[in-house]
């Protein structure tokens, strides 16, 4: 901006300050006006509020002058001031009604938009839940498969025999670790073992809450006599779908196992 133009804007803004019309806008020069006003307030202090009050008082005195002029004939005719006041009141009432109508329409549009957004997200969430539930149950049996006794009981029997054999071997050859070899030295071995078991049960409970894992959880942790999975014999030991079921089992395990 050129210096002469800047001086003109400063002169115009200072004139508005002195006349009490600082609230009036300068078309096309609002940003330069704000900059000029900030500079003037910093370098040329002036009581702008008093100037505005003086202007308002002057306008009020000027508005009271036509009060003596009355329309019609007689003492009880209506003054020009009363007519102006009623006209301004009607105008303000009309503007307030229009503004209220605009705000109501805007609020209705925002409310409808918010409801549509919530409904869309709810539909997307329901579709995703349905997708994972369908995937989790898509391999459910509609009829009992034709399997012989060995096919049904054989894998479970072999797993049971292997677990018993490993437990016997472990009991005969187990040597307690030294204190230096222990990971959690501040707690007893029994408490450390029970803590791991409780953590495993809690992890399985959390797995039931995750829809993408539901299909695998049903295969690994649900025991189906019609078509047993060998892995379900182990996973079923740690499976708790309900929180109260988990708490009811873990508290006795902690109390009895820790002692």
End-to-end separation in angstroms reads 86 Å
Oligomeric grouping of the chains: single chain
Overall spatial form: elongated
Number of DSSP strand runs: 0
Number of discrete helical segments:
9
The helix fraction, in percent, is over 70%
Report the order of strands and helices: HHHHHHHHH
Round the mean pLDDT to the nearest integer and report it. 79
Quote the beta fraction: under 5%
Structural class: mainly alpha
Estimated radius of gyration: 43 Å
Low-confidence stretches: none
Biggest sheet details: none
Description of the molecule:
- By secondary structure, the protein is an all-alpha fold.
- The protein contains nine helices and no strands.
- The chain has helices at residues 3-19, 30-43, 48-64, 80-137, 149-173, 189-209, 214-221, 230-235, 243-258.
- Helix 1 (3-19) crosses helix 2 and helix 6 runs antiparallel to helix 9 (243-258).
- The longest helix is centred in the middle third of the chain and has 58 residues, at 80-137.
- The relative contact order is 0.05.
- The mean pLDDT is 79.
Quick tags:
single chain; 259 residues; mainly alpha; 9 helices; 70% helix; elongated
What is the topology?
Blueprint: H1 3-19, H2 30-43, H3 48-64, H4 80-137, H5 149-173, H6 189-209, H7 214-221, H8 230-235, H9 243-258
Helix pairs in contact: 1-2, 4-7, 6-9
């Amino acid at each position: 901006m050129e210096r002469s133009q800047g001086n003109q804007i400063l002169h115009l803004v200072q004139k508005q300050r002195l006349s009490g019309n600082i609230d009036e806008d300068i078309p096309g020069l609002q940003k330069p006006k704000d900059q000029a006003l900030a500079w003037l307030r910093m370098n040329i202090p002036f009581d702008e509020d008093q100037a505005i009050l003086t202007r308002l008082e002057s306008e009020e005195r000027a508005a009271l002058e036509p009060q003596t002029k009355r329309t019609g004939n007689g003492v009880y005719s209506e003054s020009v001031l009363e007519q102006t006041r009623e006209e301004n009141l009607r105008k303000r009432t009309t503007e307030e009604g229009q503004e209220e109508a605009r705000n109501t329409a805007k609020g209705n549009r925002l409310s409808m938009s918010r409801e549509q957004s919530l409904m869309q997200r709810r539909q997307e969430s329901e579709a995703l839940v349905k997708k994972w539930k369908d995937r989790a149950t898509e391999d459910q049996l509609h009829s009992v498969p034709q399997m012989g006794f060995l096919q049904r009981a054989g894998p479970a029997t072999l797993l049971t025999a292997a677990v018993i054999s490993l437990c016997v071997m472990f009991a005969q050859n187990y040597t307690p670790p030294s204190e230096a070899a222990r990971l959690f030295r501040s707690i007893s071995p029994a408490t450390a073992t029970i803590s791991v078991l409780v953590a495993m049960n809690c992890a399985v409970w959390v797995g039931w809450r995750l829809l993408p894992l539901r299909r695998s959880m049903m295969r690994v942790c649900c025991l189906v006599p019609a078509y047993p999975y060998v892995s379900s014999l182990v996973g079923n030991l740690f499976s708790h779908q309900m929180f109260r079921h988990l708490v009811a089992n873990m508290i006795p395990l902690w109390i009895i196992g820790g002692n």
